Amino acid sequence: MTAYEAVKVRLDPTPRQARLLASHAGAARFAYNLMLSHVRRQLSLGEHPDWTMYAMRRWWNEWKDEIAPWWRENSKEAYNSAFEWLSQALKNWSDSRKGRRGGRRVGWPKYKSKRTSIPRFAYTTGSFGLIDGDPKALRLPRIGRVHCMENAARLVHGRRIVRMTVSRRAGAWYAALTVEQQPDTRPMAKTRRRDYPVGVDLGVKTLATLSDGTIFPNPRGYVRAQRRLRRAQQTLSRRDKDTNHGRGSNRRRKALDHVQHIYARIAAQRADRIGKLTTWLTATYPDISIEDLNVQGVTRNHRLAKHVLDADFGEFRRQLECKTARAGTRLHVIDRWFPSSKTCHRCGTVKAKLPLSERVYRCDECGLTMDRDLNAAINIMVAGSAPETLNARGGDVRRPGLAEATQTSVKREPSWHANAVRLGAAPGNRDM
Length: 432
Ligand SMILES: [Zn+2]
Hints:
Elements: E1 4-10, H1 15-44, H2 53-67, H3 76-97, E2 120-123, E3 129-131, E4 134-140, E5 144-147, H4 152-156, E6 161-169, E7 172-180, E8 198-202, E9 208-210, E10 214-216, H5 222-238, H6 243-246, H7 250-284, E11 287-291, H8 303-327, E12 330-334, E13 360-362, E14 369-371, H9 372-385, H10 400-404, E15 421-422
Parallel strand pairs: 8-11, 11-12
Antiparallel strand pairs: 1-7, 2-6, 3-4, 4-5, 6-7, 8-9, 9-10, 10-15, 13-14
Helix pairs in contact: 1-3, 2-3, 5-7, 7-8
């Protein structure tokens, strides 16, 4: 079976090309809605419509001159992609009614609204894709040679492109290229391997805290970007929601684009950082423990942070699973109900409550005082690599990796990792 991977590049169209892109996306939306209403009408007449993509194409080719005499303005791929999406949506709906989707209910497809649906269309056949001699451009049939913000050829890296989905988000156009994945034969990054297990706690304040005291800070500019985001959201909340027949003012539209743009940037920065973190972890430790999902993480007033985090957790776990399998590293995923933050790693006492604002864990029983995330990371490590010691605390559960946590010296890391710092067991060493 061939595996596929998606490569996403931001497009930089000329104003004319941007108009054509919008026209193609509009054509796809039109075809989708038209076909959906056709299927509905057939159903209401008691017929059994054929909703395979091919049947839809046949019907469209028969009627397009009459219904949409302008159809030649757009590539036929725009209409075809709409039929493919609708056909899949109808199949999902009918499968779920037959109980074939694991009991999950899938609703009847909705009409795509010009205002709320994401403008998009796709190419699957024809001469779309990379252009020889111009790595920073893509060929979009009927639209032309569209310049890209990134080096598309380098990202594709010689792999075969089977599909190109074009969509507009936060005021910008993107091309998502589906490429055939090749077995990854690159050698693992060379780092000084450590011979003890590690637990990883992902967080908001810092990207990751490791049980041996290593800290991965958030990307540079992260705090500033969050501040900008908060301001942009305030602006958005002040914009008029009710004008234009409830569609909101144009200034609101603009403010929303701005919020989405900053949000996308933050997410991209964290994603980049997570890629590096997972590579380094896999190359450095023989045994890695992580939490299933950060449920006790962030709630209510940290709604945005939670958003970013949820996406991060999924990606973090996915990448770790991939990379550890390849490198032969053990990976433990801890049950999500394990109270890693509330448990004292030294004596095992579990606190009833630990507000997020308390950054330092203080144990009332044994007097342990430690950075909250570090304590959690140690618990995750123990739960993953030595769960048998969990109920036998009080004795010496110190393990090689733990001992290092009491060191405060900064150890040299690979260059990209230079701003990782070591965290002492006592608070106050944390210079962040
Ligand atoms: Zn304690």
